[in-house]
Design brief:
The structure is a homodimer. By secondary structure, the first copy, chain A, is of the alpha+beta class. The first copy, chain A, has ten helices and 15 strands. In chain A, about 25% of the residues lie in helices and about 25% in strands. In chain A, strands 9-10-11-13-12-14 form a six-stranded antiparallel beta sheet. A four-stranded antiparallel beta sheet of chain A has the order 2-3-4-7, covered by helices on one side. In chain A, helix 7 runs antiparallel to helix 8. Chains A, B: It is found in: Cytoplasm; Nucleus.
Chain lengths: ~350, ~350
């Protein structure tokens, strides 16, 4: 599942607890021998000087990050795959005065009236790049980081019955981690609010992506107690009490706990969701979170209004969503000549 | 209007053509005299060494950008406001091998199995920061860059009639630039496609935000010929032919001109829109464009389906959208006790 997948990815990105200890604070010069010189069981076999870029897997000029696939030629001339992820680090407020006033070099680019632009060259220690290496990398790693074309699917009610639902039933998605939360077998201490009604109740819990250190990127998930509601497609007027509870009580709990009022919250479901047990996302309205795009997110208030308008709205309605080129469900739609 | 506003902002950000010429290519050392030393009519009065940060107006760890408001004390001890914008530059593919293999310093952080992370310290010339200065800055500049709280408004059909519409009628939004396009008085050479029917026709034209250099961030706008359709709220079943034309012919024109098929396009309207003449946005599905969030964007295919379901859907329906704290319309809703 995506969420558990996210846990895994997070561990990967952070390198888990790490078998290794940190190196000294002072930057170490890199040269052909730089890593070899300090290679022990505490340092990776990867050699920067032997890395050759093969392909840009993904890059974002907006986020200043780039994902590279490359080869590393070993001493014996054999080549192994590596994934290298480079990301510029955020600008830190407490370093700004150093950045502007100390040893920085700068070059005036344009000056027009009260507007001027410069290229600023900060001292090394103020301008580092976070570098993540996967080595040796498998094809699975390379695929994971490769940006893929996405395609819109227009799923009619019949398409859901004939294509999507049969496909979902062939998949063995484990949502044991969801049941563990609902049964208090895991993360019980993280629960922010619970309505324990088995039909119209839910548990509100912070999403893994939120470190809870600031409200700016507030992200919580409401997981309903009732089982068998896979997604938006299963919702009818019968679920209106559940949905209204989640919207109202969820907003109240977040106001009480985080002092963020309901009119500063984005409350929505995903279709397709990343796991098929009904859950609702609560994110800070000012937070440009992943998964809020119109082709995936459905405001809970709209869902309620649509079910009030037509109890079978989500059984009949064509739902539009995006699938990545490598997703099996897309192939099902293509095979059916629907996309 | 936002679009013309964007033009203005773009000019500002780029500093226009600039009254000044570029300085030499070699970075110049910055010190107290660094700028004073080269100050001429071609260089700004701003002095980095005299800049003191007062407040962070906005920052984005994701985009590695920070907007600062500060004071610059002049020789005579007087203080003037300045806005300083710092943004890390994107990682360039053709510089990667230099970044990884030449004079970069690096520090191993974590090593766990095949995963390892480093802090990389690139040489100055490979790691610059784009710096934009507004000096002296007015309160208007400072407000413009300040991040503001946003609030959700739940606008019922009656709220639209009683609050939003009367407010819009008091505003003197000039959309002359839109009429100039429709009448071929401006940008006629930029038109990609036209259906000249006065009732159900439209003009398709690239959005200003798109430089048309790559398809990744493809962004076009369809502007309907018919006047008086302000927004989503004015749409009834009567506009279905117009909306179907825009969706189908717009997709066909983009496929023909840019070889991007309809299932890789996000086609949507904004509510609230940035100007009140009906227009439809076409963006590449893979492009994380601004304004695609669920609280502002409405897929044209959904709009059509909702009007087929209920001809008066958008007259009756509560529409949810976000307003920034300083937007006058928000005050109207607050005064009416609706938010």
């Amino acid at each position: 599942m995506a969420d558990s997948g996210k846990r895994k990815r997070t561990e990967e990105a952070e390198g888990g607890d790490g078998d290794c200890v940190e190196q000294g604070q002072k930057p170490q010069p890199l040269d052909n021998g730089g890593l070899l010189g300090v290679r022990t069981e505490l340092t990776p076999a990867f050699s920067f000087s032997a890395f050759r870029v093969e392909k840009v897997l993904r890059e974002s000029a907006r986020e200043k990050i780039i994902f590279l696939h490359g080869k590393v030629s070993g001493d014996s001339g054999d080549e192994k795959d590596a994934v290298v992820i480079l990301e510029k680090t955020p600008l830190q407020v407490d370093r700004i005065s150093d950045l502007l006033n100390k040893k920085s070099e700068l070059k005036l680019q344009i000056c027009n009236d009260i507007y001027s632009t410069y290229t600023l060259y900060p001292p090394l220690e103020l301008n580092d790049v976070k570098t993540t290496i996967v080595y040796p990398a498998t094809e699975k790693h390379i695929q994971k980081y490769r940006s893929q074309d996405v395609y819109l699917v227009q799923e009619t009610g019949d398409d859901y019955k004939n294509i999507t639902l049969p496909f979902l039933q062939t998949q063995s998605f484990s949502i044991q981690w969801v049941y563990n939360i609902l049964e208090k077998k895991a993360e019980a201490d993280r629960i922010i609010y619970e309505n324990s009604d088995p039909t119209n109740g839910f548990i509100l819990i912070p999403d893994f992506k939120w470190d809870q250190k600031q409200r700016d990127d507030l992200y919580l998930i409401a997981i309903c107690h009732r089982r068998g509601l896979k997604s938006l497609r299963d919702l009818t007027a019968e679920q209106l009490p559940l949905l209204r509870n989640i919207l109202q009580e969820g907003q109240e709990a977040i106001l009480k706990r985080y002092s963020l009022p309901g009119n500063q919250l984005r409350v929505y479901v995903h279709y397709q969701p990343s796991y098929y047990h009904l859950h609702v996302h609560f994110t800070a309205l000012g937070f440009d979170a992943a998964g809020i795009a119109v082709e995936r997110a459905h405001l809970l208030s709209d869902v309620i209004a649509n079910l009030e308008l037509d109890p079978l709205y989500y059984q009949k309605r064509t739902l539009t969503y995006a699938l990545r080129a490598n997703e099996p469900l897309l192939k099902k739609f293509l095979d059916a000549g629907k996309c």
